[in-house]
Design brief:
The protein is an alpha+beta fold and 365 residues long. The chain has helices spanning 8-15, 60-74, 94-111, 145-149, 169-176, 195-204, 206-210, 215-222, 231-239, 252-264, 279-288, 308-317, 352-364; strands at residues 26-27, 36-41, 44-55, 78-88, 114-122, 129-138, 186-190, 244-247, 267-271, 301-305, 322-329, 334-338, 341-344. The strands form two sheets. The protein has a seven-stranded mixed β-sheet, sandwiched between helices.
Length: 365
C-alpha cells in the first residue's frame, strides 16, 4: 500500500464494515470524515481525539499534541488533558527522549492541558521515532460543548444551527450533521496551507536546506511554529455562530475541503489562488517536489460561515491570518478554479509528506 493514511474507500470497505458492535452513549456515528468521537457517561459528555507524528526530529510530540488539541476544539470540546506514547528506535539516546518530553510539555503548557502520562518504549523494527497523543476534552454539563465555546448570549438562537437552538447542543449537531444553507455558506481558511508540513520538513532536513537557503529564510520559516495553536480563532468563530469547521491536518487542504463538503452534503466552488500559501512553503515544496495543497496543515482551520468576510475581519482584528477561499454550493459538484480553468476536486490523496519520508528512509538504508 502507499505511504500515509489509507484511502476513504478502503477505510469504509476494509475497516468500518468490520466494526459492527455499537453502544449507546457513543457519538457521532462512525464516519471517514470524523476526527473526534465522544462518550456520554452519567450525564456528562467527554470527547477524544488522537494524532500521531513520525520522523527523526525531537519536536514530534509538539506537532502531535497541537494537532489533537486543535481537533478537539474544532469539534466544540474544551481540551483538558493528553496521554502520550513515544516509540523510539534502537539507536535513540536517553537525551533525545528527554528533549522529546520537554517539547511535549511545552506544547501542553501552550495549549493549557495536562500531560496525564508519557509512556516510552524502544521498538526494534522502527526506523524512525513516532509519538502518539490521545487528547481528552470536556463538554458543558448540559451536554453542549457549543455552550462552553460559544456562550448563548453572544449568538442569537435564530443564528444557531438546528439542534443547538433547541438545547441539544454540539452532541446532537455532531450526530445529525449540519447541512448546506444552515449558517454555512462561505468557506474561510485561517493561516496557510501546508504550514505544519513545511515546519516538519525544515526540522527533518535542516542541514540539507541550509545548503540551499540563507539562514534568514530558514529562521523565518521556523517562526511559523507560533501559529500552530488554533483555539483562539476557533473561539472567535464559535462566538460568531460558526458551527461547521475542521482542522486541515493530514492530506492537506484539498482533502479537508472534500471531507467538509461530504459532512455537509454539499458542493463547493473554491479558487486555488485564494488559498493562502506562504512563499517559504512554495519554495521548500518545489525543492522536494511536494504539492503543498496535499500536505498536512495542522494549525489551519477550515470554516463554513454565513458571512465569511465578516469572519475574516474579526480574525484580522486579533491578528489571525484568514481568507475567504470559496463558497459551498447546492448539489454535489466540487469545483476548483485554477484561474480560468475549471477542475473537479478528487477524493483525498495520500499525505504528500508521507512520500517524502518514504524516500528519505530509503536513502538512509
Amino acid at each position: 500500500m502507499k505511504p500515509g493514511k489509507i484511502t476513504e474507500t478502503m477505510r469504509k470497505r476494509t475497516v468500518q464494515k468490520q466494526l459492527k458492535n455499537r453502544h449507546q452513549g457513543i457519538f457521532p456515528d462512525l464516519s471517514a470524515e470524523r476526527v473526534c468521537y465522544g462518550i456520554s457517561m452519567n450525564g456528562k459528555d467527554v470527547m477524544i481525539a488522537e494524532a500521531s507524528r513520525y520522523g527523526n526530529q525531537k519536536d514530534l510530540g509538539y506537532f502531535a499534541l497541537m494537532a489533537a488539541v486543535n481537533d478537539l476544539a474544532a469539534a466544540g470540546a474544551q481540551p483538558e488533558a493528553v496521554m502520550v506514547r513515544i516509540f523510539l528506535t534502537e539507536y535513540a539516546y536517553e537525551s533525545r527522549l528527554k528533549s522529546m518530553v520537554e517539547a511535549i510539555e511545552a506544547a501542553a503548557a501552550c495549549a493549557d492541558v495536562q500531560v496525564m502520562d508519557a509512556a516510552a518504549e524502544v521498538v526494534p523494527v522502527m526506523r524512525s521515532s513516532m509519538v502518539h497523543v490521545t487528547a481528552v476534552g470536556s463538554m458543558a454539563s448540559t451536554g453542549s460543548a457549543a455552550d462552553a465555546a460559544c456562550p448563548k448570549e453572544q449568538v442569537p438562537p435564530e443564528k444557531m444551527p438546528p439542534g443547538m437552538a433547541a438545547g441539544a447542543g454540539r452532541r446532537a449537531e455532531m450526530a445529525e450533521g449540519i447541512r448546506y444553507g444552515q449558517n454555512a455558506r462561505d468557506l474561510v481558511l485561517t493561516k496557510w496551507a501546508g504550514m505544519e508540513g513545511t515546519l516538519r520538513i525544515l526540522e527533518e532536513r535542516r542541514e540539507e536546506l541550509s545548503g540551499r537557503f540563507v539562514p534568514a529564510f530558514l529562521n523565518q520559516t521556523a517562526a511559523l511554529r507560533a501559529y500552530l495553536p488554533s483555539i483562539e480563532e476557533i473561539r472567535i468563530a464559535r462566538n460568531m455562530g460558526v458551527a461547521a469547521m475542521r482542522q486541515v491536518s493530514e492530506e492537506g487542504i484539498l482533502a479537508a475541503l472534500w471531507k467538509l463538503a461530504e459532512s455537509l452534503e454539499a458542493g463547493l466552488t473554491v479558487s486555488l489562488k485564494a488559498i493562502p500559501v506562504r512563499q517559504e512553503t512554495i519554495e521548500i515544496c518545489e525543492y522536494y517536489h511536494v504539492n503543498p495543497y496535499e500536505m498536512t496543515s495542522a494549525g489551519c482551520i477550515l470554516m463554513a460561515a454565513e458571512d465569511g468576510h465578516e469572519l475574516v475581519k474579526a480574525m484580522e482584528e486579533r491578528k489571525i491570518p484568514a481568507a475567504v477561499i470559496g463558497r459551498l454550493e447546492e448539489g454535489n459538484d466540487r469545483i476548483i478554479m485554477r484561474g480560468d480553468e475549471i477542475s473537479y476536486l478528487e477524493r483525498p490523496q495520500a499525505e504528500a509528506l508521507a512520500g517524502c519520508f518514504a524516500v528519505w528512509n530509503k536513502e538512509e538504508v
